[in-house]
Amino acid sequence: MNIVLLSGGSGKRLWPLSNDIRSKQFIKIFQNENGEYESMVQRVYRQIKKADSSAVVTIATSKSQVSAIHNQLGGEVGISVEPCRRDTFPAIALAAQYLHDVKGVKKNESVVVCPVDPYVEDDYFKAVKKLGEIAETSDANLVLMGIEPTYPSEKYGYIIPESKDDISSVSMFKEKPNAETAAEYISQGALWNGGVFAFRLGYVLDIAHKLIDYTDYSDLFAKYETLTKISFDYAVVEHEDKIAVMRFAGEWKDLGTWNTLTEAMENNSVGKAIFNENCAGSHVINELNVPILCMGLKNVVVSASPEGILVSDKEQSSFIKPFVDEIDQQIMFAEKSWGSFRVLDVEDDSLTIKVTLNPGHRMNYHSHEKRDEVWTIVAGKGRTIIDGFDHSVTVGDVITMKAGTKHTIIAETELRLIEVQIGKDISVHDKIKYELD
To answer: What homologous superfamily does CATH list for 338-434?
Structure first.
């Protein structure tokens, strides 16, 4: 099975856990079989591999998410990096060309495209695998998954099939309706359009070459910023007559708001939280190392992270986005390919950060022109390379680097350090990277 997961957006409706770098699919709030917390992307990837251990998984995403993907999934997963946002057709075209040129997928093989963040059970990816098999042998050029509706939703588009068979030709598509119209569609056998579809690889590559002047993956990547923004629906689906739909009646949830996300949580809290006996229907997600005490809260979500604190009625939490858009502050937490960092303190002339490096990983070898840095090792052991000189470091060691000093640190075990940046003009853009032998 070849599967492309579309991973985009900043997920501002799940502030303060999500930000411009950390989208909702990277928030660890679901418990796996071992009781460990995992994110949406980890859960989906695990489910795919359970359904088909040989599946070729490619995540189509922006550059800002690559580090988090490597951090959570490792280096085996394929990543088709979009140089900038150009909507779903260019993203899928780039991913298709990546599969052909980089991964060696043949044009007659099927590819399934789906969002990276649905909340589903294992039967969903068994259906996804079947969808790909149908696309490979069907006369249809596109095969969609239609979700059996559980209520007349106004959030989704609808697929009207020609029959109520498990697999049917598509009669028409309907945009997001009001509740009354949605109920009418459902009475006609309509299905939710969850954005899951399959095709033979050559089909999309042929369309891409007709609509875009390019030669191969490298050329398409280089020209990506010049491409017209257009959705896959407008570029492909609206012009295709041979479309089939496969019904899926299993669990499928779009966890796009705090209200829907808390519905999928196994427990009422993640992190340190205390509820008194008068609380009901309330949830806490706490990433801070301090307790949250809730008393008498009914249907409330409380979320705390280095980015901020949210206390909201669950229904009202759906209207969070315009308020978050007005918040202007630097990123306070991020996952990198080598580990993660969390901002502890911000002053005019200094920034204090707690850095965690995974075993065997290192930062880039780099320098800064406008700031000094001081590292204090608080856990683990490793090595620093300072202007070419290699030194072992362990708990209690302090390393000082003046502006212009080339430096990196390599973790032999999990390594935690406190980094203090000192300077008049501290900026994430003040970094010069170097090759390290």
So the answer is: Jelly Rolls (2.60.120.10)
Q: Which residues pair with 82 in a beta bridge?
A: 62
Give residues with Cβ within 8 angstroms of 362, minimum separation 6. Answer: 338, 408, 409, 410, 411
Q: For residue 155, give the 3-state DSSP assignment.
A: coil
Q: What is the pLDDT along the chain (437 residues), one digit of tens a residue?
A: 999 999 976 667 899 988 777 788 898 989 888 888 999 999 999 999 999 999 999 999 988 889 889 999 988 899 999 999 899 999 999 999 999 999 999 999 999 999 988 899 999 999 999 999 999 999 999 999 999 999 998 888 999 999 988 999 998 898 888 989 999 999 988 999 989 999 999 999 999 999 999 999 999 999 999 999 999 999 999 899 999 999 999 999 888 889 888 988 889 999 999 999 999 999 999 999 899 999 999 999 999 999 999 999 999 998 998 999 898 878 888 888 899 999 999 999 999 999 999 999 999 999 999 999 999 999 999 999 999 999 999 999 999 999 999 999 999 999 999 999 999 989 989 999 999 87
Residues contacting 156, CB < 8 A, separation 6+: 147, 176, 192, 193, 194, 254
- The answer to whether the beta carbons of residues 224 and 82 sit under 8 Å apart is yes
Q: In which residue are the tokens 């490298």 written?
A: 218
Give the count of alpha carbons within 13 A of 162, CB side only.
8
Give CA–CA dist 94/305, Å, rounded: 35
Give the Cα separation of 148 and 124 in Å (integer): 12
**Domain parsing of the chain, residue ranges:** 2-254, 266-319, 338-434
On the 0-12 / 13-18 / 19+ scale of CB atoms within 10 A, 52 is middle
Instruction: Tokens for 130, please give them.
Output: 């079947």
Q: Where are the beta strands (DSSP E) in 50-177?
A: 56-62, 78-82, 110-115, 118-120, 142-147, 157-161, 167-174
pTM of the predicted structure, to 2 decimals: 0.84
Fold of 2-254: Spore Coat Polysaccharide Biosynthesis Protein SpsA; Chain A (3.90.550)
Q: By three-state DSSP, how is residue 53 classified?
A: coil
Residues linked to residue 243 through DSSP beta bridges, in sequence order: 142
Cα distance between residue 132 and residue 140, in whole Å? 12
Phi, psi of 276 (to 5 degrees): -85, 175
Query: Kindly report the CA angle at 34 between 256 and 116, in degrees rounded to 5?
Result: 30
